[in-house]
Amino acid sequence: MQKLTLDRRCKAAIYLRLSREDGDFSCSSEKLESNSISNQRLVIMEYLKTCPEITFVREYCDDGYTGANFDRPAFQKMMEAVKQGEIDCIVVKDLSRFGREYIGSGAYIQKLFPLLGVRFIAINDNYDNARPGAADNELILPFKNLMNDSYCRDISVKVRSNLEAKRRNGQFVGSKVIYGYMRSPENKNLLIIDPEAAAVVQDIFRWKMDGQSPAQIAERLNRNHIPSPIEYKKNKGSKQRTCFQTREVAQWSPVAIYRILRNEMYTGTLVQGKTTSPNHKVKKTVQKAPDEWSRTEHAHEAIIAPAQFELIQKLMLEDTRSPVGANGVHIFSGKVFCAGCGSSMVRKVSRCGGREYTYFVCGGNKADKHLCSSHMIRESAVYDAVLLVIQAQIAAAMDLSLALRQVEDLAWENRELERIKSKRAFQEEIAEKNRRLKAGAYDDFKNGFIDKADYKTFTEQFERRIREAAEAITQLDRERSSVMGGLAKQQGWLSKFMQYENIQELSRNSVVALVDRIEIREDKDIDVHLLHSDHFASIVAFLKEQGAGADVTVLPAKREAV
Question: What's the pTM value of the predicted model, to 2 decimals?
Answer without folding.
Answer: 0.54
